[in-house]
Amino acid sequence: MKISDSNWFEIEERVKHDDRCILPLGSTEQHAYLSLSVDSILAQKMAVDAAEPLAVPVFPALPFGVTPYFMGFPGTVSLTMSTYELVLREILDSLYTHGFRRVLIVNGHGGNSPVQEACAKWVSDNPGTACRFHDWWRAPKTWAAVKAVDPIASHASWMENFPWTRLAGREMPGEQKPYVDFERLRDSNPQEVRALIGDGNYGGEYQKSDEIMGDIWDVAVAETRELLEGDWV
């Protein structure tokens, strides 16, 4: 249930009976031929699809994340980790004020993952709360489903190419791109990263069939929903 489809009266009433909510985290960064908003689109849709039968409120995806390495690509927006932690903490404080005590964070961008420490600190500072941090694309069942299709899968490759992250009228290359040199990437500045990865795909084919992608998505939705339904202790 998207929070944008509700008014405040409805949320006030709902939280009296169910203190769960979902906060998606995204990013605005290059994804080769795909949308610059891939991570936000996927985190938001994953959260909404997982929550749908449970009517758990889903807040809008935070559209900016920590992605300094892609600043050589126009359109990318990056926050420092210290800023990101402060923003996330204030969001969680707002949710707490309105009665939410169990928060599932559905994260769509690997650069955001270190913020888990700030989430743990928030729980420690607010007894009676729980905050689960879920990197949906690399959760065990989902990652196994990806690897079963093609072990060569990475950033901006086929594994992020869904009908809802594709841009109309843009053709995808037909070949499989070799993996980039990850060791060199770790020590590179944004301009060097751009030179190393070219179009932005880290390695792998650019697109698989919608049927294959739909099957992977279904696994990921079910795995995410399990976190909402399971024991929060």
TrEMBL record:
Keyword Hydrolase: yes
Keyword annotations: Hydrolase, Metal-binding, Zinc
InterPro entries in the cross-refs: Creatininase-like_sf (IPR024087), Creatininase/forma_Hydrolase (IPR003785)
One Pfam family of this chain: Creatininase
Cofactor: Zn(2+)
Family to which the UniProt record says this protein belongs: Belongs to the creatininase superfamily.
Name of the protein in question: Creatininase family protein
Species of origin: Congregibacter variabilis
Lineage per the UniProt record: Bacteria, Pseudomonadati, Pseudomonadota, Gammaproteobacteria, Cellvibrionales
